Amino acid sequence: MTADPTELGIPEDAMRRLAEMRPGQATSLFTSDLSVNEFLLVREAGFRPLGLVLGSSIYHVGFQMGRWNRNQELTVLSQAMYHARELAMTRMEAEADQLGADGIVGVRLDIEFKEFGSDLAEFIAVGTAVKADAPTTPDGYGWRNNRNQPFTSDLSGQDFWTLVQAGYAPLGMVMGSCVYHVAHQRFWQAMGNIGQNVELPQFTEALYDARELAMSRMQAEAEQLHAEGIVGVQLRSHGHRWGGHTTEFFAIGTAVRPLRADHTIATPQLVLPLTDR
């Protein structure tokens, strides 16, 4: 089970809301940010929405000095961005756990910088907690992941339905972050490039390296969940408020596993038009 929600900083009002939504309550009703089509497809996939769950973390994102003429990761900032998102995700998972959910679908991760502090940002995780109609998967396991936590997925309702129909189960959202400082060009280098089409190797190497670090950290998380692979991967870059030469590269996707050890995906049959036969 996930940690005690009160220890994670979930407010009392949220606990009361979850208690009212818990299945079996006379006044229980579900809430969801799924569209109508997504809601129907999630139900078709064999999952009942229980309620909207969320996690939030107001985080002070500090500053780290780096040499202006050197490509380098700013590890303090990388760790801050990762930890803030992890706090939001963990609180969202704890809310789902209180509802007895098997998973959370349609998860969104957002960042909002606040006007009351230039270095303050709110990290928000929101999704719809769901319960499987069948208590176990076809291979006899539960729908929760190997940490006994509700699975999380940022796939759309349509993609989630397709994934389950194809014989795969989501294990969890996996992510990797890297905040990277790209070296400034020296004056004579910048002047030499004026009017020319030319690759800038130091910029290419910096951005390549930063993306690789984010991707490798995401893959390491998937390995910890014993996943077969990661689907729906997105690789985003965010400048935030650090200036033009410092960027966060953020990799995120849904780790999955097959529902059967001997699972194979059937190859669709090609049907030719009559004129081509």
Automatic annotation (TrEMBL):
Any Pfam family: YbjQ_1
Matches recorded under InterPro entries: UPF0145_dom_sf, UPF0145_YbjQ-like
Gene3D superfamilies reported in the protein's UniProt record: Hypothetical protein apc22750. Chain B (3.30.110.70)
PANTHER family documented for this protein: UPF0145 PROTEIN SCO3412 (PTHR34068:SF2), UPF0145 PROTEIN YBJQ (PTHR34068)
Lineage of producing organism: Bacteria, Bacillati, Actinomycetota, Actinomycetes, Pseudonocardiales
Recorded family membership: Belongs to the UPF0145 family.
Protein name: Heavy metal-binding domain-containing protein
